[in-house]
Structure formats: C-alpha cells, structure tokens
C-alpha cells in the first residue's frame, strides 16, 4: 500500500504539467474552469454589486407594498392532502398577506378532497378546485391559473414549506425590473439529516443548484424556474398560455418566457424548503425524469432557439447551449475521456483514477467552503457537511453521471418521457404525436 | 242523508239517534255542533263529506282534556277516500249508512268497559298528563303502537295521530319531544323508520333546500363543465372553448378544434360562477330556508330527528291503566320557594296542631287550579313550562307573607297555606294573585286567557288534612 502510494507520488511529481493537462483535461477544462473558477468570478462580481442592489431592492420593496397587488398562490398536486395543512399554516405567517391560496386536486384517490374542503371551509384555502379525473400537473396548474385573480401567480409544491418572507421576496424582483416575467425561488433541502442520500442532495442543492442559479441569473441565462417555488406575472403566463405537458414543465415554461424576451431571474433570498428523495432508488426515478427533459425540451421542442430567426436571442442561445453542453455533451465527453484514458493510458490508470478522485475531492472542498461564504442562508453549519464531501465524487461523478447517461439514451432513442406515469397517457400520447 | 229512512229504524230526534239503550249524536256541520253537551252521548257519528270539517271535529274531541271527550267513540259516515292519517287512526270505525249502527254497539261497549278500568292518577307534569291521556286512548282502543304517517299538514312531515292531535300542526316537533321523553322513561321502545331534518330555530321541517354561493349566499349561479384539452394541457370552463361563429369547441391556448371526448379532451369536473358576486367555486353551499320562521341554515346545522315506530313497553302498558310514575319529576325541588306535597302535608299537620293550641290562631288553605294550563304548555314546550311555573310561584309568593308556604301539586294545581289572617283577607289576596296570573299570561302569550279557579277555606282542626285537600281539589276540578 505504502509502495503504491510512493509510486503514485513519484509519478505525479515526475510527470510534467503538459502531460498532466493531457491526462486530466476533463477536470481542468470543464469541471474546475467552468464550475469553480468561472462561477466564483461571477459570484464575486455579484457580491460586489450587492450594496447597489440593496438600494434598488429596498425601493422595489417599497413599490410593492404601496401597490400591494393580489398574488395568487397555486398549488397543484395529487394525493397531497396531508401536506396542505402545514403549507396553509406556513402561508398564514407570510409577511406579504394580500394573496389568495388556490389548491388544485388533480384526481386524488386519498383523503385530499376531504381535507382540502375542510381547510377551505375553515378559511385556510381560498379556492379549492378538483379534477375528478387526473389530468397531469400541467393541467392542474393551468386550472389554478385560469381561475386565479392575482396580478402575480406563485406556483408552489404542496410538500414544501416557506420562510415567512418568502412570498414577499419572490415578488420583489418584479418591481426591480418591469421586464421580469418569472422569478425562481431558492430551494433548500429540509430532510438533509435523514440519511446519506438526502445529505448528498443537500450539498448538491446548495452548491450546484443554488450557486449555479445565482451565476446563471447574473449572466441572464437562468433557465429553470422551479415548480416548487416560482412566480410569474399574469401577463407573461397569459402570453404563453400557461404550462405545457410535462415532465419538465418548469424548464419548458421558462424557455417559452425567455423566447418572449422576458427576463427570468433567480431570487436567492426567497427560501423554500423541500424534502428530497430519501433513497437512491427514488432519486434515480426523479433524476431520470429531470434529465430526460433536456433532450425533450432543449434539444427537440425548443431547438429553434439556435435558429437565427426573428425570435433569436443571444442569451437564449447561450442558456440552452450551456445547458446542453455542460449536461449532455460533457456527459458524453466524460465517457470519451474514460475511453481515452483506458486506451491511451492503460498502464497509468492506477495513477489516473486515484488522482482524479483526489482532484475532484479537493475541488469539492474548495468549492463548498468558498461558495458557502456567498450563501446568506444555509440549512446547517458548513462543518456538518464536511465529512460527507468526499462522497460527492462518487455521487456526482459516477452515480448522477450514470443516471444522466441512461436518461439521455432512453429519451434520445426511445422517447421514454412520453411514457412516464408522472403524466397521464392521454396527454402524453398527444404530446408525443405533436412533438411537444 | 235521508232522515226519513233513518226514522223508520231508529229514533231520530234533533240529530240524536237512539238504538237500544245507546244514544248517538250525528254531527254533520258546524251548525249542529254543541260540543259541550256531547259528553252525554255514547258515541258520535261524524259526517265526513267535508273532510276538513271532520278533521276539525275529530281534533276537538281527541285533544280535549276531559276524558269523556277524548275517549268518546266516534264513527265516520259518508267518508270519501282520503289519506288523512287523523281520520284513519282516530276514529273507531266507518259506517256506510245508519243501518250499520248496530254493528258499532259492540265496539262502544268494549271502549266503555276499558274506560271503566282506567285509574285516575294525580299526574304532575305536562308530559305525564299528556302521555297518560294518549295511553288511555290506546288502552281503550287496544293498540300498542305509535305509527308515524307522512303528512303534508305536519310541520315535520310526519304525524303520530294519537299524539299529534293534541298539538297544532305547526308544533309537531313537540310530539317528537314527548316521544323522546317517553322513550327515556322506558314507556316505549323505538324501531327506526326514517329521519327528518328540522329547522334548528323553530323545529319546522318545511325547508327549502338551495345551492348557494359560499361567498354571498346567493342562489343565482351558473354551472359549467370544465374542459381539459390533452395536447396543450389547457383547462378551463367550456365557455372558454366556445366561439361566436359555430358550435365547434376551439382551444383558447392552441386554437385546435376539440373533436372527440376521451381522446383529445375530457370534462374532469364542473365550475360554478356566482352571478351575484362573480365568485368562482366548485362546491356550493347547501342551505335550507325554513318556510315557517325564514331562518336560513347551513344543512349541517339542521336538527336531525329519527322518526321511529314506537311500541309500548311493559311499563308503558301498565302505565296505560295505572298511571305514570315519571322518574325525573319533582317540580317542587326544581322551583325555588315551594315544597313538595309530602312536606306540605306534614307542615299542614303541624299547622293544625298549632291552631288547636290557641283559638285565636287560624290558617287557610288555598287551591289555585289553572284549568287550561296544558293548552298553554302545549304552546310553549317543556323548557318554558318550568319557567312559567316559577313565574306563577313568584306571583303567589309576592301575594302572601314569608311565613306562608306553597306546594305544587301538579303543573295545574298549586296549594297554598296562608296563616293567621281572616278568611276574607285570604280570599282578597287570592283574588289579587289570580288577576296577576291572568295578566301575566295574557300579556306574554298573545292574549291567551287563563282560566283560573280558586278555592279558599279555613283549615279544619278536626278533619285530616289529606282528606280536606282531596275534597277541595275534587270540587275545584269539577267546578273547572
């Protein structure tokens, strides 16, 4: 063991920088440069502009409270009755109170209807709508939006809970810039202590999702207003006709709004807490669904963002290109890298593999600790997550990459998203036929 | 009716028919009605050509507080087919012509024999008094079941003829209260038949159920199907899909025509629009408006009452002859300032001993009999009965000295002992009390005229108090 380690150290120290770059190109060019150096640069600039932003933010808040527009909070879902009471209670605590709370029951077959009717009767819910026949999340959201009255529509997931100023925070950006069509909230993992699976997801959410969204928002290429916590202007929703059939409807509607030249922003201070899948098996299901949507929506449905037509926008081009490149193409490249190493550096694999792990782990520590300085709100002290960071290499570098690869193959070659039980077949069949 | 034909077989004189030693009164219209004199006839032949007339007469008899009236055998003649439960259950038979009168003799005798077996009881509450009366009727008619009948005239939609006849149709719910009381006393046992919902304010069952807007309570609303267009996920009211040109449904989001329900669209639910306040909702409220008191009540707050078929228990059958000993009734315990009969008798015994010691001392017994008090109780219900009695006792108390004492014999009879005043003075005080009692009821119960009879006598030193009291009550009741 010691001999092997000596041999490894000896190899690292004797090989030249160019050779190292040749062997670890994937990490250096993509992982480190894009996901650390670049993001850090953007976040630093974003942080430096914070004082100026605070003044604008304060003015926007004042405008909001002078106008006090009606906000419609819509919560579509199936069999979510048990979560609704908690959600209703957390909404009662909101600092912004001029809202109507609309729950849409998408054909639940449990006690949801009874619970929600009781909550409506007791004043916790303003409007309860139910489809006796399940129509899918998009149709449920559209039903809520159709009968809502607010100037701003906030889409929530029933199993999430919200900071008591979350609604206020998520609608302030509409008063920062009149062209903002949608705002995405910041999602933290509530059950991060439950097990290894949830803890790793919590690290991923705070690192990749949260910081990643701050970066993309700052660059104007923010591409997914999360369904768990997203706000839209009625005007914007009217123009796109609400949500289209999912899975991946939140990313889809964001692209649709972007095409109409609306600004889409991320609001890191609008905090929502969600419970993430608590087993790796459940997580696979969720991520297969998420990852398929890149092929279905970015590559197929919204490929026109790459065409130089009258709706062409450079930021939309970059937004989709970046998404496709860093998720789809790099994933393919990662396999290319593996083959490259296996074929060209077969004898060095025993050095390359551990060194890669070392590099990624070091990078993960560096990123997590440095980026945590930019996060105002954390689920737990940074120290809590430190012991779990070494696992991120396996989780992110292998587990999620593998799931992503499977999802891409399934969707690219077999269009499996149209068969996902998440959406009823009656809708998916039409979507497949129409290529949407 | 051909009176000549009748004359040939029976003695027929001024609506009175005699047959053997039985006399029948033929009641055919209000002009022949002399109800106060009818107790002397053995039976009534009631002409039912006018159903409403027959119904009124039957109610007058069966609701009467005098046993000679409410147990009177009544036979209908000239009946048309009708579904009136009162006319069906509260008569002793139907005859087609006077020729059938001999056939009624056996029934009349049977009723007479049964009536003779009834023991008079000193009933002491409205429930006991009324239920005993009903039991008497059932005993003489050899029936032991209270069967509810759907009845449009009844305020709860059902009537129990033998009991309901004692109440106005709009206060039918009191029949249910009485039955509940009797069930609690183990006099009857229930067998579920139906359930009715009554106004929570006035216990009336004539309710108008309306679907109303949960926001403004207006019934002016419009319902529409919700339509879900599968391809684009749009969902909205069907009017969103309509156009002004043709009948084709077009999706407002993707403009496609809707062609085939279940294939490219479905109707997963409905939506209601309030035309009054523009509220949108799926579940309307259902409220019931009472036709009697106009109260609008959420259906969940309506009074739910079981309608049962009741049968007499063994205790009930015994009570029909011997009287009811109700478990929950001690009015004197409930009403402050009164003593019960046993204590009153003991005190009067001491009073007798006291006046024996000194010839200058005297004591007077006063009996206050409110003859039509049960008519009033029927109107105001059980809970008010106690309150009213307490008011009566207050009035009596105000008219006597603190050393005098009052006993509630039963809700219609109060006994009072007035000490150490001359008989004339005592009578004067009682007159004032009577005026106040009548005034109280007249002013508070829509001009209801209370019939108050009083008897004031000096307490005898020699005769036992119990005997004196018994004679006094008998005299006053007969007077009433």
Largest sheet of chain A: 8 strands, mixed
Broad structural category of chain A: alpha/beta
* Shape category of chain A: globular
Shape-level CATH architecture of the largest domain in chain B: 2-Layer Sandwich
Mean of pLDDT of chain B: 85
Q: What's the multimeric state? A: heterodimer
Distinct helical segment count of chain A = 18
Q: What's the total count of β strands of chain A?
A: 8
Distance between the termini of chain A: 55 Å
Number of domains in the coordinates of chain A?
1
Kindly provide the radius of gyration of chain B, computed on alpha-carbon positions and rounded to a whole number of angstroms: 32 Å
- Walk across the major sheet of chain B and give the strand order: 1-2-3-4-5-6
What is the structure about, briefly put?
Chain A has helices at 2-14, 17-23, 25-48, 50-67, 81-92, 112-121, 137-146, 166-171, 173-176, 196-219, 234-240, 249-259, 280-301, 314-344, 349-372, 382-385, 391-414, 425-434, and strands at residues 71-77, 99-106, 127-131, 152-156, 161-162, 180-189, 229-233, 263-274.
């Amino acid at each position: 063991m010691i001999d092997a380690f000596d041999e490894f150290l000896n190899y690292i120290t004797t090989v030249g920088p160019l050779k190292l770059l040749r062997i670890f190109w994937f990490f250096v060019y993509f992982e480190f440069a894009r996901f650390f150096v670049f993001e850090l640069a953007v976040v630093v600039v974003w942080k430096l502009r914070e004082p100026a932003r605070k003044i604008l933010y304060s003015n926007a808040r004042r405008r909001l409270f002078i106008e006090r527009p009606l906000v419609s909070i819509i919560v579509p879902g199936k069999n979510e009755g048990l979560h609704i009471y908690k959600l209703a209670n957390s909404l009662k605590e909101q600092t912004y109170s001029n809202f109507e709370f609309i729950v849409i029951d998408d054909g639940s077959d449990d006690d949801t209807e009874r619970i929600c009717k009781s909550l409506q009767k007791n004043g916790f819910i303003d409007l309860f709508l139910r489809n006796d026949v399940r129509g899918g999340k998009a149709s449920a959201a559209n039903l809520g939006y159709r009968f809502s009255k607010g100037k701003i529509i906030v889409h929530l997931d029933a199993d999430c809970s919200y900071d008591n100023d979350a609604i206020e925070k998520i609608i302030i950006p509409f008063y920062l810039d009149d062209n903002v069509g949608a705002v995405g909230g910041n999602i933290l993992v509530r059950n991060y202590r439950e097990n290894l699976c949830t803890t790793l997801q919590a690290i991923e959410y705070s690192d990749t999702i949260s910081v990643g969204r701050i970066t993309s928002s700052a660059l104007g290429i923010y591409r997914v207003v999360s369904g768990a916590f997203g706000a839209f202007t009625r005007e914007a929703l009217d123009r796109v006709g609400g949500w289209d059939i999912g899975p991946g409807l939140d990313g889809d509607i964001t692209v649709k709004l972007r095409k109409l030249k609306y600004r889409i922003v991320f609001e890191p201070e609008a905090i929502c807490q969600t419970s993430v899948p608590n087993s790796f098996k459940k997580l696979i299901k969720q991520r297969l669904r998420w990852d398929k949507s890149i092929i279905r929506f970015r590559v197929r449905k919204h490929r026109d963002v790459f065409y130089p037509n009258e709706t062409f926008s450079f930021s939309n081009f970059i937004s989709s290109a970046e998404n496709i490149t860093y998720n789809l193409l790099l994933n393919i490249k990662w396999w290319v890298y593996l083959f490259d190493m296996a074929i060209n550096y077969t004898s060095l694999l025993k050095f390359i593999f551990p060194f890669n792990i070392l590099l990624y782990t070091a990078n993960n520590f560096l990123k997590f600790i440095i980026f945590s300085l930019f996060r105002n709100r954390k689920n737990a002290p940074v120290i809590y997550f430190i012991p779990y960071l070494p696992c991120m290499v396996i989780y992110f570098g292998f587990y999620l990459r593998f799931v992503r690869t499977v999802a891409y193959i399934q969707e690219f070659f077999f269009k499996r998203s149209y068969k996902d039980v998440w959406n009823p077949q009656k809708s998916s069949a039409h979507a497949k036929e129409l290529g949407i | 009716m051909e009176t000549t034909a009748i004359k040939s077989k029976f003695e027929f004189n001024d609506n009175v028919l005699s047959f053997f030693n039985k006399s029948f009164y033929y009641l055919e219209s209000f002009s022949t009605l002399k109800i106060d004199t009818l107790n002397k006839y053995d039976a009534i032949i009631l002409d039912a050509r006018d159903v409403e007339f027959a119904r009124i007469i039957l109610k007058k008899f069966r609701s009467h507080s005098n046993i000679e009236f409410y147990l009177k055998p009544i036979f209908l003649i000239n009946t048309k087919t009708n579904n009136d439960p009162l006319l069906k259950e509260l008569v002793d038979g139907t005859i087609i012509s006077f020729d059938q009168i001999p056939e009624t003799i056996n029934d009349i005798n049977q009723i007479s024999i049964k009536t003779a077996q009834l023991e008079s009881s000193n009933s002491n509450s409205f429930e006991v008094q009324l239920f005993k009366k009903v039991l008497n009727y059932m005993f003489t008619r050899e029936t032991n079941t209270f069967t509810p009948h759907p009845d449009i005239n009844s305020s709860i939609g059902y009537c129990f003829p033998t009991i309901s006849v004692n109440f106005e149709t709009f206060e039918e719910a009191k029949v249910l209260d009485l039955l509940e009381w009797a069930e609690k006393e183990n006099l009857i046992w229930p067998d579920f038949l139906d359930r009715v919902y009554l106004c929570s304010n006035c216990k009336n069952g004539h309710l108008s159920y309306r679907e109303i807007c949960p926001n403004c309570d207006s019934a002016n609303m419009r319902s529409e199907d919700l339509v879900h267009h599968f391809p684009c996920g749009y969902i909205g009211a069907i009017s969103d899909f309509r156009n002004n040109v043709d009948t084709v449904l077009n999706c407002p989001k993707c403009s496609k025509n809707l062609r085939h329900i279940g294939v490219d669209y479905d109707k997963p639910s409905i939506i209601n629009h309030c035309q009054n306040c523009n509220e949108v909702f799926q579940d309307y409220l259902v409220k019931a408006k009472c036709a009697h008191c106009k109260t609008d009540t959420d259906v969940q707050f309506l009074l739910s009452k079981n309608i049962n078929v009741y049968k007499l228990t063994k205790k009930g059958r015994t009570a029909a002859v011997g009287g009811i000993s109700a478990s929950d009734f001690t009015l004197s315990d409930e009403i402050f300032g009164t003593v019960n009969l046993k204590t009153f008798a003991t005190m009067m015994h001491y009073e007798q001993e006291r006046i024996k010691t000194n010839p200058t001392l005297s004591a007077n017994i006063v009996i206050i009999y409110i003859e039509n008090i049960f008519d009033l109780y029927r109107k105001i219900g059980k809970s008010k009965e106690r309150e009213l009695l307490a008011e009566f006792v207050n009035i009596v108390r105000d008219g006597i000295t603190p050393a005098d004492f009052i006993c509630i014999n039963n809700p219609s009879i109060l006994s009072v002992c007035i000490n150490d005043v001359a008989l004339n003075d005592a009578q004067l005080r009682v007159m004032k009390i009577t005026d106040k009692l009548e005034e109280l009821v007249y002013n508070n119960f829509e001009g209801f005229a209370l019939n108050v009879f009083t008897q004031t006598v000096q307490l005898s030193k020699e005769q036992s108090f119990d005997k004196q009291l018994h004679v006094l009550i008998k005299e006053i009741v007969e007077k009433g």
